[in-house]
Write a structure and sequence with these properties.
Elements lengths: L1 H37 L16 E2 L6 E3 L8 E3 L13 E3 L25 E2 L13 E20 L6 E7 L7 E7 L2 H5 L17 E3 L12 E5 L14 H6 L1 E11 L11 H4 L5 E11 L8 E3 L5 E3 L5 E2 L5 E2 L23
Parallel strand pairs: 8-9
Antiparallel strand pairs: 1-12, 2-6, 3-4, 5-12, 6-10, 6-11, 6-12, 7-8, 7-11, 13-14, 15-16
């Protein structure tokens, strides 16, 4: 019996060591691949596709909030279970740094042990459907977005939507809807399946993240390519390349979640319902079409790609003069599509 136990332990140890070795090899291969993607030319000087680093494009950027608590000062009463909740209501005062909950806290360094958050006025100030609260993030140039993530300090909204602009001067386009009342609030069916060949630039609506629980710390993560049939051939899909492209993002908080006790209009109850978000992050890369590995301010102070492969433009979207021997094309893993001299 003892021998069997020892053999079992040895077998487990060997398996764990093998798993660790496989994981290590995979991580090293992944890092090597990332390094290769970072260089626009290989060791022999041949052009190859290159990409800027993957980053949280929202970090440190200014977010414009249409409504923020504390303007004028007001009391709010967190539900039991919310961090900082107690028997007494608290104060939000934008003029007091200790009591302020402005939009700068959306994109600062997020420390789960010492959370800061942006907060809207409460329902006592009329914040509820059909009044929307908007959070607008301007990225400075086009990015290719992989995900948008929100971490709520209170319960998640009953209904909210994500919109994007593909071009700075373009219209707002719906990206994703979250609602326990998709049809009622947004006129959209809940859930949607795309068949190959259908237009993939369509916003889905889901009720998956619209329950009032948890009362704090709920996450919502939107993946831009989830449910898109052409995601597995992204490099050959101009439609999806445009779908993931965004210069601005807008979060429209449309309907608060409640326990239904707000119908009695008790002031303290109304003060317990408000939007609060502790982190707003956007995963993606500066859009350079496979022709640059860095982004930074240009001579005009505008964020732009540091173009290689004889390309130019804010997004490396065209060939340099006299390097137009063939039409411009996006760099891919198979072909860098370097612009060539006449």
């Amino acid at each position: 019996m003892a021998v069997s136990r020892v053999l079992s332990c040895l077998t487990t140890a060997v398996l764990m060591a093998l798993v660790s070795l496989v994981v290590l090899v995979m991580l090293e291969a992944h890092c090597a691949a990332c390094a290769g993607m970072g260089s626009c030319y290989d060791g022999a000087g041949r052009a190859q596709r290159c990409l800027p680093e993957f980053e949280n494009a929202a970090f440190g950027r200014h977010v414009e909030a249409s409504h923020t608590c504390g303007r004028p000062p007001e009391d709010f009463c967190p539900h039991v279970g919310t961090p900082g909740a107690g028997p007494q209501c608290q104060r939000c005062d934008d003029a007091d740094p200790q009591l302020r909950h402005d939009a700068s806290y959306l994109t600062d360094f997020h420390n789960p042990d010492d959370s800061t958050w942006w907060q809207s006025p409460s329902m006592a100030f009329g914040v509820q459907y059909p009044t929307s609260v908007n959070l607008t993030l301007r990225l400075g140039k086009a990015y290719e977005i992989t995900y948008v993530r929100l971490k709520f300090h209170t319960s998640r909204p009953e209904s909210f939507a994500i919109y994007k602009r593909t071009h700075t001067s373009g219209p707002w386009e719906p990206y994703q809807y979250y609602s326990a009342s998709c049809q009622k609030t947004y006129g959209r069916p809940e859930g949607h399946y795309l068949w190959p060949g259908e237009d993939e630039r369509v916003a889905f609506c889901t009720s998956e993240f619209s329950d009032i629980s948890p009362l704090n710390g709920g996450n919502v993560a939107f993946s831009t390519l989830e449910g898109r049939p052409s995601a597995y051939s992204f490099e050959e899909s101009p439609v999806l390349q445009e779908w993931v492209t965004s210069t601005e993002l807008l979060i429209s908080l449309d309907r608060l979640n409640t326990f239904g006790d707000d119908i009695f209009k008790d002031p303290r109850v109304l003060q317990s319902y408000y939007y609060a978000v502790s982190d707003f992050s956007v995963g993606g890369r500066c859009k350079c079409n496979g022709h640059a590995n860095e982004c930074g301010p240009n001579e005009a102070g505008q964020l732009a790609c540091h173009c290689q492969h004889n390309t130019t433009g804010v997004d490396c979207e065209r060939c340099l003069p006299f390097f137009q021997d063939r039409p411009w094309a996006r760099g891919t893993a198979e072909d860098a599509n370097e612009c060539l001299r006449f």
